[in-house]
């Protein structure tokens, strides 16, 4: 919290208590711009520039230019066209992914309470302008720099800016800074600065686009590094060998570069971004919004899900079931008993999602919407308006209660306190034994229970020496279908644990109703007495964590992650923000508190565990399809390029011209763009898998040489049996190499028998078939001679078909002795390192410090 700001800002008409009108706000916005730190827009030129930054592509363009000027114009044109097509494919897929991210950011809007023309309305925070009058309440992320004019027990967490963990109390004249989080009370103030002009905006602009890597990105980078070393070794060896053999320098350089391009999976970023963008669109249809595309991979890795109870396992339709006096007899509501006092203590504006729900339930009962069990309809002539509110303390998660000081119709003053029974009873002067027994019985039945106490005659609000007035009993039944959703998560290998502020008996009773085995229960008080080692040892046997504070929730998540498991946290309140930061995947809902939605990686449009299970399956499907592309690259690309390198050292001519190598690689890559649409076997979705570079390396060392053996056998047949000239030799190997490296996808895509027990997606089958057909047709095209190809006679075509059949059969046989896809990950593996996140204010920009929505090329 800072003092009144003295910085310059746009001149505006001083607003009256009615605030600005929409027309005035629009005029100011045209001058100062939207209240956004940075806009996320898909920029075609920026995407195109990223396609051209590959050093290999730049070298190829230089080589094409040199070829053109030394007279090799056909090669120059072919290389130029191939590079243009390769760049075009990458651009089309990445730009489409960028547009998908832009659509997600546009969908994820945050709202602020603002006075416009005298009416309190909700507006998108990006529409706020200097001069707007804004109201803030518990759980809100401050949407701009706001000069406070009216406060009520107002505190802000400024750790996002200062790193200071303790909240700062605000008073009139202070400035609540953009990006800070309201942790207590309410306030009203006037917007002084917006967007990049705020303190947060200056910091965020300095952070730019730097992002931490996820585990999957790290794995891709290491894989790419492996191939770069292989490519460098092959390129250098081929270049030196060709020079030693006396071949022209330009030919040697072009062929070496073509080998390098053939080894490296040029379209790996495009395949990954296409998979992620396709997955994000599917998830949006499933009511799952992914704020960072790469979080889809993390979602598929989840092994433990911590979740709150209300709204996830229950219907979140809180209804007042009973109002009971301290002795357990019903309160009819016509006297100053727990019902009337509870209504008076409910803040009409609410102080958070839970308080709003209790307020609505009480007022539904007051107006006859929900008669009390055993007490008949609520009667009486009184109304809340007959009492004047003097002071109030809103609910917070430390005190676990709310209180008000009111003046009655006869001038008497009352301090009314309602909240968790343990907290309220501890402040009462005397509590009958029958009241404590009543509390235990109701908790054992699974009821939501609120205690109400009063202190008459106090001149100020004092939460001590209270008289117990009774209890309010609320019901929140289990959500329909939650048992099936939990069973589905269990089948996916995801363990569900409950973190709640409710009483342990309430949570345990709910677990019994929905079929969750409550193996163990830990309370916040018990957790306080455990160090991290003891808590870690207790986690496997504990299902319910009750009466836990926000800090304890975050600690439980951190300790669980330290055990090597990938952890997701599902929550929608301000008290969930810390835990959302600490989890591998933070999950909230679009109706949750601002700070919760802002901290989350994934936002559910429907708070349903079944929807979340869909997201987990989709994450695993995308991971499995990405691995297919990597295994293909190691099974075929490396082998074919090694064959070309070896042949260039022993043949009197190049086995393929540089342009032919590039064209072969382009056709191969084009066939793989359909991999993101491929079906995935159920066993690959049943458990989380992890990126295993050792598996990919072993796969390369087994299947790469196997591919080369068949290539060299084909070379021998072409030279010794068919006595082919260079154009026919190149055409024959062009067709054979393209067919082997594309058709092998049907083998490596599954552990099952191809086509018989595991059918590929129609799009993939069509793409691969079209590419093989195109490669077969090229030697017969009118321009074949310009490409250095010659028509292939039937005898050689038959030989190619025989070699292909034997090769694919052998790959299938070897595959059965080799694990072709990553197995489900083992428990207690070392955790991957991730940067803990902080919440940022709502804007149309990615959050600073997070992995990019775009999969960067690591070539």
From TrEMBL:
| Membrane topology value | Multi-pass membrane protein
Report the superkingdom from the record: Bacteria
Q: Where is this region: Disordered?
A: 825-859
Q: Which Gene3D superfamilies match?
A: Calcium-transporting ATPase, cytoplasmic domain N, Calcium-transporting ATPase, cytoplasmic transduction domain A, Calcium-transporting ATPase, transmembrane domain, HAD superfamily/HAD-like
Q: Name one Pfam family in it.
A: Cation_ATPase_N
- Matching PROSITE patterns, A to Z? ATPASE_E1_E2 (PS00154)
- Report the subcellular localization: Cell inner membrane
Annotated signal sequence is: none
A molecular function (GO) term: ATP binding
Where composition is biased (Basic residues), the residues are: 830-839
Sequence ranges assigned to domain Cation-transporting P-type ATPase N-terminal in this UniProt record: 10-72
Which EC number(s) are documented for this chain? 7.2.2.14
Q: GO terms for CC?
A: plasma membrane
According to the record, the segments passing through the membrane are 52-70, 76-92, 226-246, 252-277, 699-722, 728-748, 760-780, 792-810
Is Cytoplasm a UniProt keyword of this protein? no
SMART domains this protein is in? Cation_ATPase_N (SM00831)
Task: Could you list this entry's UniProt keywords, alphabetically sorted.
Answer: ATP-binding, Cell inner membrane, Cell membrane, Magnesium, Membrane, Nucleotide-binding, Phosphoprotein, Translocase, Transmembrane, Transmembrane helix
What is the role of this chain? Mediates magnesium influx to the cytosol.
Name of the protein in question: Magnesium-transporting ATPase, P-type 1
Q: What is the lineage of its organism?
A: Bacteria, Bacillati, Actinomycetota, Actinomycetes, Streptosporangiales
């Amino acid at each position: 919290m800072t003092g009144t700001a003295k910085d310059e800002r746009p001149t505006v008409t001083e607003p009256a208590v009615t605030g600005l009108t929409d027309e005035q706000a629009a005029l100011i916005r045209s001058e100062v711009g939207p209240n956004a730190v940075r806009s996320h827009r898909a920029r075609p030129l920026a995407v195109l520039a990223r396609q051209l930054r590959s050093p290999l592509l730049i070298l190829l363009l230089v080589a094409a230019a040199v070829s053109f000027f030394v007279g090799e114009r056909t090669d120059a044109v072919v290389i130029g066209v191939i590079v243009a097509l390769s760049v075009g494919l990458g651009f089309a897929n990445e730009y489409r992914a960028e547009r998908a991210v832009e659509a997600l950011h546009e969908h994820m809007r945050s709202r602020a309470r603002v006075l416009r023309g005298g009416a309190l309305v909700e507006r998108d925070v990006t529409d706020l302008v200097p001069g707007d009058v804004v109201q803030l309440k518990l759980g809100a992320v401050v949407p701009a720099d706001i000069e406070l004019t009216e406060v009520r027990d107002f505190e802000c967490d400024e750790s996002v800016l200062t790193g200071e963990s303790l909240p700062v109390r605000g008073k009139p004249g202070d400035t609540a800074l953009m990006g800070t989080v309201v942790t207590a009370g309410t306030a009203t103030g006037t917007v002084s600065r917006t967007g990049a002009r705020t303190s947060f905006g200056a910091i965020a602009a300095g952070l730019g686009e730097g992002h931490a890597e996820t585990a999957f990105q790290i794995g891709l980078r290491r894989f790419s590094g492996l191939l770069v070393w292989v490519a460098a070794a092959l390129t250098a060896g081929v270049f030196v060998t060709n020079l030693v053999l006396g071949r022209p320098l330009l030919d040697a350089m072009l062929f070496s570069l073509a080998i390098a391009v053939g080894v490296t999976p040029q379209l790996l970023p495009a395949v990954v971004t296409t998979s992620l963008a396709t997955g994000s669109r599917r998830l949006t249809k499933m009511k799952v919004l992914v704020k960072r595309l790469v979080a889809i991979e993390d979602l598929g890795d989840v092994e433990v899900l911590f979740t709150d109870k209300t709204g996830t396992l229950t219907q979140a339709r809180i209804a007042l079931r009973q109002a009971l006096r301290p002795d357990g007899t019903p309160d009819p509501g016509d006297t100053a008993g727990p019902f009337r006092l509870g209504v008076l203590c409910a803040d009409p504006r609410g102080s958070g999602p839970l308080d709003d729900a209790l307020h609505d339930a009480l007022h539904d009962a007051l107006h006859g919407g929900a008669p009390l069990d055993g007490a008949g309809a609520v009667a009486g002539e009184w109304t809340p308006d007959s009492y004047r509110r003097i002071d109030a303390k809103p609910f917070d998660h430390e005190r676990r209660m709310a209180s008000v000081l009111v003046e009655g119709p006869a001038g008497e003053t009352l301090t009314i306190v309602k909240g968790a029974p343990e907290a309220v009873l501890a402040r009462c002067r005397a509590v009958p034994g029958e009241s404590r027994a009543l509390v235990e019985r109701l908790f054992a039945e699974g009821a939501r229970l609120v205690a109400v106490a009063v202190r008459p005659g106090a001149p100020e609000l004092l939460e001590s020496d209270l008289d117990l007035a009774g209890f309010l009993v609320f019901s929140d039944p289990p959500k329909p279908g939650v048992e099936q959703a939990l069973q589905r998560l269990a089948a996916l290998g995801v363990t569900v644990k409950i973190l709640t502020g409710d009483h342990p008996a309430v949570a345990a009773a709910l677990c019994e109703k929905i079929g969750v085995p409550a193996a163990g229960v830990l309370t916040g008080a018990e957790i306080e007495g455990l160090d991290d080692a003891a808590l870690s040892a207790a986690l496997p046997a504990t299902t319910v964590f009750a009466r836990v504070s926000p800090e304890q929730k975050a600690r439980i998540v951190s300790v669980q992650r330290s055990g090597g498991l990938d952890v997701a946290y599902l929550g929608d309140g301000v008290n969930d923000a810390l835990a959302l930061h600490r989890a591998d995947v933070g999950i909230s809902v679009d109706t949750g508190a601002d700070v919760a939605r802002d901290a989350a990686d994934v936002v559910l449009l429907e708070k349903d565990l079944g929807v979340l299970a869909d997201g987990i399956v989709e994450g695993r499907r995308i991971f499995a399809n990405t691995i297919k592309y990597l295994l293909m690259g190691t099974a075929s690309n490396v082998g074919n390029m090694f064959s070309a390198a070896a042949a260039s050292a022993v043949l009197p001519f190049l086995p393929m011209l540089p342009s032919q190598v590039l064209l072969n690689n382009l056709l191969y890559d084009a066939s793989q763009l359909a991999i993101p649409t491929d079906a995935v076997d159920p066993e690959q979705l049943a458990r989380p898998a992890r990126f295993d570079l050792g598996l990919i390396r072993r796969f390369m060392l087994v299947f790469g040489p196997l591919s080369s053996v068949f290539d060299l056998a084909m070379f021998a047949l072409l030279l010794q049996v068919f006595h082919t000239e260079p154009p026919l030799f190149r055409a024959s190997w062009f067709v054979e190499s393209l067919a082997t490296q594309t058709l092998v996808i049907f083998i490596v895509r599954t552990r099952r028998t191809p086509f018989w027990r595991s059918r590929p997606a129609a799009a993939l089958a069509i793409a691969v078939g079209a590419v093989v057909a195109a490669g077969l047709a090229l030697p017969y095209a009118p321009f074949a001679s310009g490409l250095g190809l010659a028509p292939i006679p039937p005898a050689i075509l038959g030989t190619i078909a025989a070699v292909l059949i034997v090769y694919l059969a052998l790959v299938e046989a070897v595959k059965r002795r080799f694990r072709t896809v990553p197995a489900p990950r083992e428990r207690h593996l070392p955790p991957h390192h991730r940067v803990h996140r902080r919440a940022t204010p709502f804007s149309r920009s990615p959050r600073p410090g997070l992995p990019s929505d775009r999969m960067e090329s690591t070539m």
